[in-house]
Amino acid sequence: MPDMMSLMKQAQAVQAKMQEVQAEMERLEVEGQSGGGLVRVTLTAKGQMKALAIDGSLLKPDDKEMVEDLIVAAHEDARKKAERLMQEKMKAVTAGLPLPPGMKLF
After folding, report:
1. pLDDT tens digits, one per residue of 17-38
2. 8 Å CB contact between 73 and 40
3. Predicted confidence band at 103 (pLDDT cuts at 50, 70, 90)?
4. How far apart are CA 81 and CA 95, in angstroms?
5. Global pTM?
6. CA–CA gap between residue 54 and residue 65 (Å, rounded)
7. Is the four-CA dihedral 80, 68, 34, 56 of positive or negative sign?
8. Which residues contact 69 (CB under 8 A, 6 or more apart)?
């Protein structure tokens, strides 16, 4: 078993890396799409919506409900991509850290 000082140093290094990753997640953006790209949503990797683009062909009064559904679907697509990106980044940060089985830091 590694000594306590070594574990503390590793934990401090991981904490610093995690703070860097959190800051990076605020800058990284993902795009979700629905309707074959007719609706696009851009989110930060932390989930903040930055942009919404709707193709003009969808802007008909009769299509209101469909457009709303497409916006929700595009947002969900972007949210899932952001979540995967966050998991990948956090996994890279904790790689090599001797964590007990089943313990997660994120």
Report:
1. 888 888 888 888 999 999 999 9
2. no
3. low
4. 21
5. 0.64
6. 14
7. negative
8. none
Residue with token string 């008909």:
60
Token look-up 């997640």 returns: 25
Going along the chain from its start, the domains and CATH numbers come out as 28-94 (3.30.1310.10)
Torsion from C-alpha of 71, 36, 87, 42, nearest 10 degrees:
-50
To the nearest 10°, report the CA torsion of 23, 42, 36, 34.
90
- pLDDT tens for 77-88 read 999 999 898 888
Residues linked to residue 39 through DSSP beta bridges, in sequence order:
34, 54
Distance, in Å, from the CA atom of 38 to the CA atom of 35, rounded to the nearest integer, reads 5
Amino acid at 37: G
Opening angle at CA 69, ends 81 and 47, nearest 5:
30
